[in-house]
Write a sequence for this structure.
């Protein structure tokens, strides 16, 4: 740009110099013409005066003087016929006029300088000399071209000097402009280009401000703008990171869908709920992931959000499958996501896994029912107890009747035996319901026997062979009711898993904790030859609500048992072989062994008694 400016400057300077030179030369020529005319007239007047004074020799003097004038090349005076009378030039030796001069003589006017151009580009003016109206001759003055050339040279020199000064000044100006305009502009241009190619990279900024002019101000403003953009971008990045971390770590399922109800983004919790990896959600619809009934409901909700631009809250969705491969319940809310105030671009979906809550509610309902049934059973047992006592007494009296025939006595004995069994069952039922609230030293055989007698009916109907291996003297300090519940759950599960004519082993002995051999206590084992468990079932059995017994199980038995064992500072473990595993290995059969260790430790017993008392006091206070 500056180079073209400089070129333009030089061009205009050249033109200007040319014009100036031409004008100066024209002016010089005009002035030279005027001067020569004046000098011819002056010579004519001097000659006139000399003739008037009768001093013709003065004319020669005047001619000589005129000849000394710097602009005069030649001065001469001729008679009217054109004969040179006085001359100071070369014609002094050749006193004749040139043909052109002779030709002019007839046209010479009075009181006028008559000028002509001679060969060799010489100028000459001639003025007539009159005395008393008589033409006495002509005064001729020839211009000194040399002088004029000198003048022209001088003009040329001045113009050249002026031009050179102008060019140097222009070059300096261009240099200054280059430093103060072009250089900063190119810095600005480089900065803008770098920013355009890599908007995130601000390492080139701030741009150096080397000048203090408007362009310097412009660069400073540009730097401020870039800094403010970087700040805004950092703010935006912070917000995005915040949103990302919220999305990643929120303990609720979050998903965003577009108007075609395709997922554009989901978090891990949502992916866990659907059982499909996060990346595999993108571009897919609810129909690809959820059962049809749930899909219909959620799609209607999302459609409503897009249509009405209003949120939908707490929609209960039920389905089956997902990662946990069991029935689930979600609480779902959907809300509009606007990218501009006028446009709802996405629908946000919040999904809460309410399966546990739902199962809890169901379990609560069921345990309420069980509690009611238990209370009812206890009160029935209690009410049955009195008449039973009476029947037992009556049968005793009947059996001791002296004249009772022998078969009748035998029937009475049998009836008495059965009534005693009924009485035992009612006692067990009552014992089950009335659990002591304090831990106490408890006879284990009593607990195990009571549980086995409770399941006697099912044991009989399955024709299970029960092996009892426990010392009747074994005791442990525990909450008897809770430990009974553990046995009931383990034995109940073993019976559930057993096939007809299977074997059931119940064993108890003094031993040490397998986790901490220093700890002495009682180790129980409940083993069956039932169906066994696959590894993926075994992995989940201690989780609440995990069951493979679809209708009959709540999935709480082992979870509760585990909690009770932990409360007693004990351990529980399982070994199991499923039918498939048993088939794969030679000479092996399926089955499960549960082992429970309860430490027999008076300190721990005191500790749980104290904790129990504290909990009871808190419950009473509230
Ligand atoms: N002895 C066993 N043999 C085979 N599977 C067992 C055995 N004991 C437990 N299981 C498996 O463990 C699961 C969980 O048992 P848990 O006692 O917690 O619940 P449940 O028996 O299904 O239901 P609930 O006891 O609440 O009625 C069972 O559904 C079953 O699949
Ligand atoms: Mg169970």
């Amino acid at each position: 740009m500056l180079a073209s400016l400089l070129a333009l400057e030089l061009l205009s300077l050249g033109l200007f110099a040319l014009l100036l030179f031409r004008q100066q030369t024209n002016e010089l020529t005009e002035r030279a013409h005027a001067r020569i005319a004046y000098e011819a007239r002056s010579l004519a007047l001097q000659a006139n005066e000399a003739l008037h004074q009768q001093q013709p020799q003065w004319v020669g003097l005047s001619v000589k003087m005129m000849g000394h004038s710097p602009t005069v090349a030649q001065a001469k005076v001729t008679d009217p016929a054109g004969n040179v009378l006085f001359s100071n030039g070369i014609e002094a030796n050749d006193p004749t006029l040139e043909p052109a001069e002779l030709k002019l003589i007839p046209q010479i006017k009075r009181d006028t300088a008559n000028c002509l151009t001679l060969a060799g580009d010489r100028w000459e003016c001639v003025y007539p000399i009159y005395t008393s109206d008589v033409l006495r001759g002509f005064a001729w003055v020839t211009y000194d071209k040399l002088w004029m050339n000198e003048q022209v040279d001088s003009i040329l020199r001045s113009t050249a000097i002026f031009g050179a000064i102008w060019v140097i000044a222009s070059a300096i100006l261009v240099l200054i402009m280059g430093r103060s305009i072009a250089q900063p502009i190119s810095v600005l241009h480089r900065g803008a280009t770098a920013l355009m190619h890599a908007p995130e990279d601000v390492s080139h900024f701030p741009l150096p401000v080397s000048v203090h002019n408007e362009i310097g101000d412009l660069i400073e403003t540009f730097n401020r703008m870039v800094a403010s953009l970087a700040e805004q971008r950092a703010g935006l990045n912070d917000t995005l990171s915040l949103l990302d971390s919220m999305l990643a770590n929120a303990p609720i399922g979050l998903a965003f869908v577009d108007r075609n109800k395709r997922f554009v983004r989901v978090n891990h919790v949502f992916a866990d709920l659907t059982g499909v990896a996060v990346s595999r959600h993108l571009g897919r619809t609810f129909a690809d992931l959820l059962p049809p009934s749930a899909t219909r409901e959620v799609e209607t909700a999302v459609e409503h959000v897009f249509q009405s631009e209003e949120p939908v809250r707490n929609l209960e969705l039920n389905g089956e499958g997902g990662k946990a491969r069991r029935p689930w319940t979600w609480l779902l809310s959907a809300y509009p996501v606007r990218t501009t105030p006028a446009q709802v671009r996405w629908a946000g979906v919040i999904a809460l896994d309410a399966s546990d809550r739902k199962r809890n509610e169901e379990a609560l309902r069921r345990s309420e029912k069980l509690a009611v049934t238990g209370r009812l059973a206890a009160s029935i047992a209690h009410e049955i107890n009195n008449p039973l006592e009476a029947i037992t007494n009556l049968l005793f009296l009947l059996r001791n009747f002296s004249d009772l025939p022998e078969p009748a006595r035998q029937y009475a004995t049998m009836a008495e035996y059965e009534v005693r069994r009924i009485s035992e069952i009612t006692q067990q039922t009552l014992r089950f319901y009335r659990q002591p609230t304090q831990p106490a030293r408890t006879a284990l055989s009593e607990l195990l026997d009571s549980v086995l007698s409770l399941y006697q009916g099912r044991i009989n109907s399955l024709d299970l062979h029960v092996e009892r291996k426990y010392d009747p003297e074994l005791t442990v300090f525990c909450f008897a009711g809770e430990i009974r519940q553990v046995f009931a759950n383990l034995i109940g599960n073993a019976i559930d898993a057993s096939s007809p004519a299977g074997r059931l082993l119940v064993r108890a002995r003094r031993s040490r904790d397998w986790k901490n051999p220093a700890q002495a206590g009682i180790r129980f084992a409940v083993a069956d030859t039932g169906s066994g468990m696959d590894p993926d079932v075994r992995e989940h059995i201690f989780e609440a609500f995990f069951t493979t017994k679809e209708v009959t199980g709540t999935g709480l038995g082992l979870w509760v048992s585990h909690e009770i064992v932990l409360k007693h500072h004990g351990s529980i473990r399982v070994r199991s072989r499923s039918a498939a595993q048993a088939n794969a290995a030679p000479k092996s059969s399926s089955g499960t062994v549960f082992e429970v260790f309860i430490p027999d430790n008076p300190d721990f017993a005191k500790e749980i008694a104290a904790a129990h008392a504290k909990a009871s006091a808190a419950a009473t206070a509230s």
Q: What stands out?
A: The domain at 2-152 is CATH 3.30.450.20 (Beta-Lactamase). The first strand starts at residue 72 and ends at 78. The chain has a mean pLDDT of 85.
